[in-house]
Amino acid sequence: MKRILLAEDEEVLRMLVVDSLEDEGYEIDEAADGIEAFGLLQTNDYDLVLLDYMMPGMSGLELIEKVRAIEKFKGLEILMLTAKSQKSDQEKVISAGANYFLAKPFSPSELVAIVGEILSE
After folding, report:
1. Whether the predicted pLDDT of 85 surpasses 80
2. Are 1 and 26 in contact (CB under 8 A)?
3. Calpha distance 16→110 (Å, rounded)
4. Cα 84 → chain centroid
5. What is the spatial distance between Cα 106 and Cα 103, in angstroms, rounded to a whole number?
6. 53 with 93: CB under 8 angstroms?
7. Is the dihedral of CA 55, 119, 103, 63 positive or negative?
């Protein structure tokens, strides 16, 4: 079973994402902010990380930069979920080290499809 870490501070969106992905057979760990997510990354192995851009404590962008500085996370797949959908924001996210970008709002089926593509590679 593929294991995913979801870091999202909006509880309702977190529940929607978890329900959608668990229905597809993925195991999901949840974090409400970047600091909690970083702690989970230190103690668990994940196939994919879904990160919100704007979170309290440590933003998704800061978390990506911190994670990419650690050798064991170089190959970790990261999908940024964000309402910041300007071209310049996308470029910032990708240059920080995210592999993929999904603009909010997105449909559960859109998320399931992109996660399926990422994890089938």
Report:
1. no
2. yes
3. 13
4. 14
5. 7
6. yes
7. positive
Residue 86 above 90 pLDDT?
no
Quick check: pTM over 0.85? Answer: yes
* Cα–Cα distance for residue pair 81/104, rounded to 1 Å: 7
Q: How many domains does the chain have?
A: 1
Q: What residue numbers bound the domain in which 97 lies?
A: 3-120
What does the pLDDT average to over 96-118?
95
What kind and span of H or E run contains 7?
Answer: strand 3-7
Q: Using the structure block, give the residue that is written with the tokens 């902010």.
A: 33
Q: Kindly tell me the number of DSSP H helices and DSSP E strands found in the chain.
A: 5, 5
Q: What CATH number does residue 37 fall under?
A: 3.40.50.2300
Which residue bears the tokens 């909006």? Answer: 10
